[in-house]
Specification:
The complex is a heterodimer of chains A (209) and B (150).
Chain A: E1 3-8, E2 11-16, H1 21-27, E3 51-56, E4 59-64, E5 75-77, H2 81-95, H3 102-111, H4 130-138, E6 144-147, E7 154-157, H5 159-165, H6 180-192
Helix pairs in contact in A: 2-3
Chain B: H1 3-12, H2 20-31, H3 36-46, H4 50-59, E1 71-76, H5 79-83, H6 86-97, E2 110-115, E3 127-129, E4 132-134, H7 142-147
Parallel strand pairs in B: 1-2
Antiparallel strand pairs in B: 1-3, 3-4
Helix pairs in contact in B: 1-3
Classes of the chains: A alpha+beta (209), B alpha+beta (150).
Chain lengths: 209, 150
């Protein structure tokens, strides 16, 4: 395996060829905020919160660090005014969808993102795809999928499959940054299952509607 | 839709996973919509999870998961057609067929849809039925166009 030397936030770092910038940074303890990243899953590049500024051959560019491969002599900056502003806007857009998500609130505090900058669209789902990808890649159950596209895109449990496998699994629940997933599950269950209603514990970010 | 015919179409593409969209498109064009049983069959034969089929069929507008009529009627609502009286043509169409845009009538004869431009603005107002274009349609001519179809 080829060794590569790159610079992240002024630190010289050695990384293996084929690693992503995010992996290289987390290896030496440099924190980059993420929402759709999970080490067991293929990189997705959905939330763009891990955006960093890279400099290669004198040019700077904004890239998603969870997808960007390390390269020899790469200079990465994880906290520049440009990056911070971008992350702030992303957070504000996501907060319009899930205003009470604990992880979003935490990041919002760090980047000074305001909850009410954009008009509220309380879908409670930020489409990070963690649940969908976890189910497909790790559990290979494919019990839920994205449906539709654009602004009407949402996650959807397939009742025939989820009524068989989800009851004993529910491993995707703690992955969800907004708890919307649990609500969607309970709703699907109401549609299909004869089981007693699932008890919802610690459901934050979803109000009765 | 006959499950045998579904299998025939799948076999034509050697039940290849990569031909999923082609298979779905052919099913769509023959049956005008994709019933759940058909999708389940495709999923089983191609060894593609239902979640991905659902993802794809809801993503592309070419696929319909609700029943569609035998004839697809498209009324152009683009700027040129609009100023030449497309709304009145649409009104007349709605009256004759008895459905609104996006709907299908009870005997699965017509599905009505509005589109934003069909690319022949000089012919406005334009109505397209099953890919055949009718130009300079006046509200009174709509009857003649529609009555050709069974």
């Amino acid at each position: 395996m080829k060794e590569i030397t790159l610079q992240i936030d002024g630190k010289e770092i050695r990384a293996r060829d084929g690693m992503t910038v995010l992996e290289a940074a987390s290896k030496v303890g440099i924190q980059i905020p993420t929402l759709c990243y999970h080490e067991a899953l293929e990189p997705y590049g959905g939330c763009r919160l891990c955006t960093v500024e890279v400099e290669e051959r004198g040019r700077t560019n904004l890239v998603a660090s969870c997808l960007y491969p390390v390269a020899e002599g790469l200079i990465v900056r994880t906290r520049t005014p440009k990056v911070d502003k971008l992350r702030k806007t992303i957070l504000e857009l996501l907060l319009a969808h899930a205003p009470d998500s604990p992880i979003l609130e935490e990041y919002a505090k760090e980047y000074g993102a305001k909850k009410d900058r954009f008009e509220k669209h309380p879908s409670f789902c930020i489409l990070c795809g963690l649940c969908v990808r976890y189910c497909a890649e790790v559990k290979k159950a494919n019990a839920l999928s994205f449906i539709s596209r654009g602004t009407s895109r949402e996650i959807n449990f397939i009742p025939e499959i989820s009524s068989k496998v989800c009851w004993d699994c529910k491993e995707c629940f703690p992955l969800c940054p907004t708890s919307y997933l649990q609500a969607a599950y309970v709703l699907t269950q109401g549609l299909y299952s004869q089981e007693p209603p699932f008890e919802v514990k610690g459901l934050k970010g979803v109000t009765a509607c | 839709m006959d499950i045998k015919r579904v299998d025939e179409i799948i076999d034509k593409y050697n039940a290849e996973e990569g031909a999923l969209i082609q298979i779905l498109l052919q099913l769509q064009s023959e049956n005008h919509w994709l019933p759940k049983e058909v999708l389940a069959r495709v999923s089983e034969r191609l060894n593609v999870p239902m979640s991905r089929i659902q993802h794809i069929t809801t993503f592309y507008k070419a696929f319909s998961l609700v029943p569609k009529g035998r004839h697809q009627v498209r009324v152009c609502m683009g700027t040129a057609c609009h100023v030449r009286g497309a709304p009145r043509v649409l009104d007349r169409l709605e009256d004759i067929v008895g459905i609104r845009p996006g709907e299908t009538d009870m005997d699965l004869k017509f599905s009505l849809e509005t589109v934003n431009c069909l690319g022949c603005c000089a012919l406005g107002p334009v109505v397209e039925v099953d890919g055949k274009t009718y130009g300079r349609v006046s509200p009174s001519q709509v009857d003649v166009v529609i009555n050709q179809y069974e």
